[in-house]
Amino acid sequence: MSKKLFIHLLFFAVIFGAVPLNAQKFVPIKGWSKEVNQRIETFLNSKKHYEGRKVAVFDCDGTVFGQVPYYLADEALYMYADENYKGKTDSLSLKKLAILNRMVENGDNVSKEYVEDRVHFLSGLTADQIRQIGADCYQKSYKGRIYPEMKKLIANLKNYGFEVWILTASPELLYQKFVSEELNIPMLNIVGVKSVIENGVSSGTVIMPIPQDDGKGYTIETFIQAKPLIVGGNSRGDLDMLNLSSGLKIVVNPDNSTIRPKEDGVIAGHTVKTYWEQNDGIIVYCKDSVDPGIGYHTEQWKIRRNKDTSNPQ
């Protein structure tokens, strides 16, 4: 074959998609070590011809974008309450404020009851309204907080033909719009606490399983229905999900100060960081920077602050 003919054939192959220009080529992730980049690249190259579904699943808050000083799910609800219900005495306002007061009294914003009450607060709104509440909160208080390293990792995964899924213990509808737009993944690939939708309106009835702690593993099996090749998380609550990975376990900004108690099972006696150091985790750091000029509604409701673990300890 002549050189000229080969060039013509290659040109038509690229034009008509037979040889995608950017497919299955790893782009190094700036800010992560050479060793981490090499391990990820080697794994992705080993799966080039994988015949099953190539699935990657990531936790959301603290793994894909910033969670300091407060979860976006809380900020969105308390902001909406302050703007729409605070100071009013009609029955709807009193009902919604009573839910928030119950959440504040609970105080544990990672508990099952608190997580369900977020859904109860949003009941009566349409799916599109809830998605917009989340997007508005993101634009106002969290814009630019998607970790660039994770964005680059996800872009690499898509180049290698991976399905990328995001799991969150926050209301699914609240996160779908802005996460989908920021990461350029299908909105239905953002899976959170689901509620029954009746005639376009969220009913407040929670659909099990709840993607919290061991529920994240059940959520993968129930809704994604594939064993993931890559899982990413940041906290004790992601332990079960991370251990479902058949390949890479990526741990973002792990806490290295809290020794987990015996009731935490296999991680007892460890910090999140030391556990994954001993269990084949890839530990990475992404700066969780906060604009000091932002006034958080969550702070006024006296919800506990999240600890910044984005600096190696």
Question: How are the SSEs ordered, and which strands pair?
Answer:
Layout: H1 3-15, H2 34-46, E1 55-59, H3 72-84, H4 91-106, H5 112-122, H6 127-142, H7 148-159, E2 163-171, H8 172-183, E3 190-198, E4 201-207, H9 214-224, E5 230-233, H10 239-242, E6 248-252, H11 272-277, E7 282-284, H12 297-300
Parallel strand pairs: 1-2, 1-5, 2-3, 5-6, 6-7
Antiparallel strand pairs: 3-4
Helix pairs in contact: 3-6, 4-5, 6-8
Describe, in plain words, how this protein is organized in 3D:
It is built from 12 helices and 7 strands. With 313 residues, it is of the alpha/beta class. The relative contact order is 0.16. About 2% of the residues have low confidence.
Count the E strands.
7
What is the fold named in CATH at topology level of the domain at 22-69 and 146-289?
Rossmann fold
> Based on helices, strands and strand pairing, what is the structural class?
alpha/beta
Tell me the fraction of residues in β-strands, as a range. Answer: 5-15%
Total number of helices: 12
Portion in helices: 40-55%
CATH class of the domain at 22-69 and 146-289: Alpha Beta
- Distance from first to last alpha carbon: 59 Å
**Ranges with pLDDT <50 over ≥5 residues?**
14-19
- Which strands sit side by side, in order, in the main sheet? 4-3-2-1-5-6-7
| Rg, Cα atoms, Å | 21 Å
Write a concise keyword list for the protein shown above.
313 residues, alpha/beta, 7 strands
What's the quick description here?
With 313 residues, this protein is of the alpha/beta class.
